[in-house]
Amino acid sequence: MRNTSDSPSDTAPGAPCSPENVLLSPPSAALLRRMARQGDFSSAALNTALRYLRARPDAAIWRQFWTRILLVGGMLSLVAGVLFFIAWNWNGLSHFSKFALLQSAVALSLGAALYKGLDSLTGTLGLLTGGLLIGPLFAVYGQTYQSGAEVWELFRAWGIFFLPLALAGRRAALFLPLWLIGNIWSALYLDFGAALERESFFPLLTFQCGQVLCLVLWEAAFTWKGATQPWLAARWLPRLAALFIVGCMTLISLVFLIFGGSDVPSDFIRAQTLLHTLALIAGWFWYRKKTHDLFMLTCILGSPYLLLLGIMTRRFISSFDSIGNIWVLLFGVPLFSGLIIIGLTTVLVRVLRRCQQQMTLEHAAREMTEQTSALSGKIEAFPAPGLSVSAAARWKALRDTMRNLGHWPEALPCPPPAAQQDKTMPWFLLLIQGVSGWVAAWCFSCFAGVFLMIWLEGVSEASMQSQLFLIGVTCLLAARAISSERDTPFFTQFSFAIALSGATILSLDFAWAASSFSNTAAGLAAAAGMAVSFALFRHPVFRTLTAFAFFLCLAGSMENTLYGDFFFRNRLDDLEQMPLDTFYILAHGVSWCAAVCFLVMGVLWETRWNASRRLSPLAAPALYAVGALLPCLLLLCDFSGRHLFFHIGYAAKILGVCAGAGLFCLAFQLASRLKVRTVAPILCAAALSIPAGWFLPGLSLALLYFALAREVGSRGIFALTACFLLVNLGDYYYSLALPFPDKSLLLATCGLVLLFLGVLLTRKPPAALLLTETAHA
Amino acid sequence: MRNVIRARLARRSALVVLTLTLLLAGFNFSVWKMERLREDGESVFLELAPRDPRALMLGDYMRLNYRLAASVEAAYEAALRKSENIPETLVISLNARQIASFVRLDNGQTLAENERRLKPRRLNSGAMQVAPGAFFFQEGHAQIYEEARYGELKLSPQGDCLLVGLRDENLKLLESPASSSKADSADTPLSTPEEIQKES
Q: Of the residues A333, A359, A385, which one is the last residue of a structural domain?
């Protein structure tokens, strides 16, 4: 039995194993930050502890991190450049030359992997490059010999040749592209759209079965060979696959079984119900009893949660609709849906927390039988009831290190009390609570909106605005009172929902009042409404959402000021003729710069504001909001740039340059203690991201976010940044703003520069850096 | 233990080498087969009705719809209704300009002098595709192919076909400037009907 739960919280056998004391976990970055916010640690102590846990990187970790980012990023950029070049389909180069070029590249990549060793980073990169280049090779074949073969045949052949390479490479990272290629192949082959037109549901079932089979194969390999093949222990890939499978199954069941109507054949309904139920039961048994994994259990329980919600919402709609009064329908459905969401989420989170506690107990019991003899001396020297051997040893090592540096407060018990640790919840449970609270809040907002429409009918405009203001403020104050009175998941979400309704009413009221002056004033007023809501209710997710909405309103007002008049007075075709003035560039430059500076400085000073009770509730939501806003706006610029606002393309370029400058500042700040000889090449390399930001804004922003994610030690931000980069690259392919040869040249040049820098980093480190590394060690 | 690890590494390396060998051998064999069809195949023209989007990985292309597709589809549907055996090939006849028209589904009868076999493709979507449904071209050259009225196919005696170019209503080959400058290139398709007839 293997424990792969996110917070392995343990307890000693013999100690009382109540739910309160089993959550004593080993030291983690989240727990230490929480302790710092409660005043247990100073900012310097928090910094020391985070560096000890390697949550904050030192010179050696930075070096390793950038080597990987530069080599992987460079290789992917180069492959993307080749792919774009092939998509260009240049007539000037004969197809035999293209074949020779790509076959040589594949052979060279695989040869380099064999030469450097398949287990090395370079070997894995060689296999990945070779495997990815097989795709463009088949694409050239498809372009040259137009025999009528379909696109799925390309992906099938690609997947067949990629499989042995992934098996030889033995890395989870090599199976990710294989899984993606397989998914694209099956989606194109099964052609769901055409199948549904023919009223054939068989492809949907086949697709789901194939996905389940992939996951079963991986888990079987992990169970049988996991002990001798450590690469199979990587959990991120099966988790990604499970999330995708459960998401697909739930979506299909929701669309066809619950909201599908009578057109869906009964055979399909029976087969889908059977498949879905069997998959969930088998998954629950496996991940609860055999391979402990709380994330998987959350996915599995999330599916019936959504289905139940769908069934109840449909039931409400049909019940209220049968009454025949439209107001009952408009009142009832949002109100009851909101309440159901809150109730179901509370039950879901409680069940999962219970599972976490039970799995922790089982794991701790097993761990004790294995390790008691080996570490018994340490336990005697460091008695901690309710704490497992390994966790106790880690707490002891952390306390001793910090005591030597004079950072561990004498009054602080070690380990910290269970009550303090009880709040540490896995990120996905926090996310579920946040999202469901958000959805419930919008249901309540709809209910409140309908209620207000009836109540305020016939009232004068001024009176209506003042009444709305009072209602908004009352909602926020009531939410604040409820959350401070009862600190349970139900009341937290309930108050969160009411607060968000209040914030929406308040912002709309402000915007309505100011709309008589101008659109810009309305945007600013809505932002002010969000700021008031931010101040009135203290909930981290709520504050992040309001801060996001606040910055969004500000950005909207600014865009409206800059060219709103031109947009409203001209036809869509004339927008490309819009004059580009210095003020526009200056305004965007200043605002993007301010946002990037805020982000970089916020991350650099994280330990300072995290240790401050006054700053922490303000800085964290604002930082997350700005962090989420920049990629969202960049994607918006990319998607709408060529259709609506011509100048938004320039806005993206300016943002890219600012992100590059931010990366430079971050490097400057982190490397400032090193010698000039060491700092100069680091800064030169970082400075390259500034011109890169003009041509490839997405890449520059992603590099900045990767660095920030490593600085704060967040894998979530890292994964989200990778997703952003993928979406950005996909949009870049289909964008018509720049021709393929230019895109290809940019990506290939960028890839070569990144690879060059990565190779430089893999060479012998400079003496100054070695000294710093030694000092850190 | 070290020997075991070495042996495993050697097996994995052999797997990579084998994959590369199979890939290159299989790929180049297919290229050779296609080149033979391209050189030895007979030129046939099919009338079409085009439009152009962008494909995943393959770049810009023109989606082709052939005029004879409707008659072929009708013939297949009629055969299905009569529960007859569905043949793999169909028969087309060529006029003096080598333009094809549908005659019948291939029932094994001897072909007339101007008749040829053509092997259509049943797509996953269920539709019958008589010839390649897309023509890939260099980005930015869409305007050159707006005049396209015929698709030029190279046809093997067994009925396999390869789309090699598009032609206008006078059967003049539509080419991008870069391609037309390579007049002496071996794979340049014939450009006038007289040349095509001579070749046939």
A: A359
